[in-house]
Amino acid sequence: MILILSNENDRSTAHVMEWIVHLGGKCMRINEEDELALKYANEDSFGFQIEGETIDFEEITAYWYRRGDLNFYNTSKQLEDGAADFLIRRLVKFTELEQHALKSYFHYLLNRTSSIGAIWYSNTNKMIVLAKAKEVGLCVPPTLITTEKNQVKKFLEKHKHIITKTISNMLGISDHSMGISSYTEELTAALIHKLPEEFLPGLFQKKIEKKYEIRSFYIKGKFYSMAIFSQLDEQTSTDFRHYNKEKPNRNVPFQLPKEIEQKLTFLMNALGYNTGSFDLIVTPENEFIFLEVNPIGQFGMTSYPCNYYLEKELAHALLHPN
Question: Which of 46, 177, 191, 273 lies at a CB distance of 3.0 to 4.6 Å from 41, suitable for a disulfide?
């Protein structure tokens, strides 16, 4: 049986599961919203229950970490009710640490099976990835992290055009009435002028002139790449995620040069990843510039326009791990 950890809103998980069943396999999905009950655990096995059904480690033939986390019944929720006492707060913290250790142990056991993805992929550090990308010979944009307005002004003077992006993952905040998301944005002299003299650490990079962008999905040594002609639309020219739904970007299948695929493979091996989506820019001089890798991002945006059937490829990789 193939075990999949995801969340309720991820449609890609359902599409992969449909292919697993179509190809004759058996799978079970756990969402992070599902509450699990521990039955037992020892040095190399475990069993837990979800909605009355018990899952034994011995039944799992492959594991796909899509996203989310395991959700065990947490006694700290009860302790928090009306807890103002210092001792109670310490007990709450202790039970949270106990839960974290337990979940880490289960993830360790699951990733000892034939697995795609891992929960630690979700803690990708952009700066570490950029450093390792340079080590394997990939070109990356000149990058500055600073808290000082004067440093940003000097960076702009040197590179003429610069952008800013989050140091960690993309911000997404929403409620019933509105939503806020962070994007890569160009930072002009006028915007820099509005900055305070000192601010929280920010990430700034030279803006790379684009011929087109590349999104490439990687699964166990194979690349499925797509060219995105985002520079033809002012709305998407800096960040293609500013989607123009009325006039979408042109997306076409693309073959990365073998030299670039080799370097990206070296990078994945250095990071310990076996799946992920790469973002690159191709300059007017046909130079490939590495931007980042998202090991748990969406892959449907590459699958459907290019007819790659990545959902089928993932199902096949889980059914035939060797």
Answer: 46
CA separation for the pair 264, 229 (Å, rounded): 22
Number of domains in the chain: 3
Q: Is 181 left (phi over 0), alpha (psi -120 to 50) or beta?
A: beta
Averaged over successive runs of 10 residues, the pLDDT of the chain (322 residues) comes to 94 96 96 89 84 87 94 62 68 84 91 92 90 97 96 96 85 63 83 93 93 94 91 57 60 95 97 95 96 90 94 95 76
- Are 6 and 100 contained in the same domain? yes
Contacts 24+ apart (CB under 8 A), 46-55: 46/106, 46/109, 48/72, 48/106, 55/3, 55/28
Q: What is the pTM of this model?
A: 0.86
Q: Which of 154, 171, 206 is the last residue of a domain?
A: 206
| Identity of the residue numbered 149 | K
166 and 256 inside one domain: no
Q: How far apart are CA 101 and CA 34, in angstroms?
A: 19
Coil vs helix vs strand at 293? strand
Same domain? 14 vs 107:
yes
Rounded Cα gap, residues 216 and 138, in angstroms: 15
Strand duo 2-6 + 251-254: pairing: unpaired
Amino acid letter for position 258:
K
Nearest Cα to Cα of residue 145 among 207, 206, 205, 203:
203
Let me know if residue 135 belongs to a domain: no
Residue 273 CA to residue 259 CA, distance in Å, equals 19
Residue 138's φ and ψ, nearest 5 degrees, are -80, 150
Our measurement of the distance from residue 128's CA atom to the centroid of its chain's CA atoms, rounded to an integer in Å, reads: 15
Rounded Cα distance between 279 and 293, Å, is: 6
Whether 216 is covered by a domain: the verdict is: yes
Query: Residue 258 belongs to what domain range?
Result: 212-294
